[in-house]
From TrEMBL, chain A:
Biased composition (Basic and acidic residues): 105-121, 137-157
Signal peptide: none
Name assigned to this protein: M-phase phosphoprotein 6
Pfam families hit by this protein: MPP6
InterPro entries found in the cross-reference section: MPP6
Region (Disordered): 93-121, 133-166
Automatic annotation (TrEMBL), chain B:
Exosome complex exonuclease Rrp40 N-terminal domain: residues covered: 31-65
Keywords, in A-Z order: Cytoplasm, Exosome, Nucleus, RNA-binding, rRNA processing
Protein name (Swiss-Prot/TrEMBL): Exosome complex component RRP40
Gene3D superfamilies: 2.40.50.100, K Homology domain, type 1, Nucleic acid-binding proteins
Record-level GO BP terms: CUT catabolic process; exonucleolytic trimming to generate mature 3'-end of 5.8S rRNA from tricistronic rRNA transcript (SSU-rRNA, 5.8S rRNA, LSU-rRNA); nuclear polyadenylation-dependent rRNA catabolic process; poly(A)-dependent snoRNA 3'-end processing; regulation of gene expression; TRAMP-dependent tRNA surveillance pathway; U4 snRNA 3'-end processing
GO MF term (any one): RNA binding
Residue span(s) of domain K Homology: 154-202
Amino acid sequence: MANDNATKLSKNLLRMKFMQRGLDAEVKKQLEEEEKRIISDEHWYLDLPELQAKENFIIEERSFVPCEDLVYGRMSFRSFNPEVEKLMVLMNTQKQGEEEEEKEEKDLTKMETDVTDEEMARRYESLVGSMKRKYATKRERSQMQDEDGKRMTETKVKKGFLKPQD
Amino acid sequence: MSDCLKEKVGEVLLPGDVFSLERKPEKVICGPGLRRNGDEILVCKSGIFRHKHPNMYWIDSQQKRYVPAKGESVIGIVTAKSGDVFKVDVGGSELASLSYLAFEGATKRNRPNVKVGDLVYAQFIIANKDMEPELVCMDSCGRANGMGVFGLGGLLMKVSLGLVRRLLVPQSALVKELEKVFPFEMVVGLNGRVWVKAQSTQHMLVLGNLLEGCENMTAQQRHAVFRRVADSTP
């Protein structure tokens, strides 16, 4: 009677989590295999040879504008419409500006330098001192400060006020 | 690779001509009239083969039918208002759509004042052979730059696409001669529509006739006509 009941349980019911405990190993395997089959059937794939990704050397351009460098389409002459004349100047110089920029970029093989080599050298000279101080131990630092202090006092002595002569 | 292309520059080519390029790492930009087919370049319009440094090639052809291309500025006629887009006739195979938000300063509350029958100067932001073209009346920064509704009291006419390009070429000889005739204003759309406005209707008609006449004239003939117009008008 109990056996008959077990066979009547549907597969979907057996697949549920709480039914897994009572199942024996064989039935479990069977269920798993079935599940796998279902999944693999559902996953389609294209039966095609793999496409090679080639770099495209031919670029298509549908418009005449970049080909012939066509200008802005609104125009006014002899100050018939000053607003449009302003726009014309603006739009047509924009295009020229872009072209000039491109040329300039090509010309600039050497970078412009804001800082000359000499300035750079001077800067690094002072940098050596400050970097040295940074990595010095405490004792060394205090010594250095003493030296500086001595120098300071020396200079102070030199700069002391002079008594005004009556 | 570009050698076989350079040989043909300046020659007349016909649809069906093929440039087969052996593979070399060199980029080629094929403009209007040329089509890519794998590693070949096919000619699909008849005309003169042109080249621009460094690697731009195209066919300089004469035609009257406009095919929308992305980035081109055109003159459209608003033919319908449907919901939040305007349908604009640009002379292509299909009406272009123009969103009411694609105007300078337009918001959902502040709709632009566009009526059916208005002329708009706009540029294509989507122009695909399989899809409805889409226009905008502002640039990428949101400024109008002269685009939008225009055309109060002017004259609109249709010319060939070749003539339009001759008008828009930098330092165009044709425009230089036209501006000597009288003061006027002109809007040139790449779809072959030209709108002119001058002080009087007579002047506009003269300009219109001159433009239409320029279509098939040599430079000498044109000089003669312009001289005659200049003499006859005070």
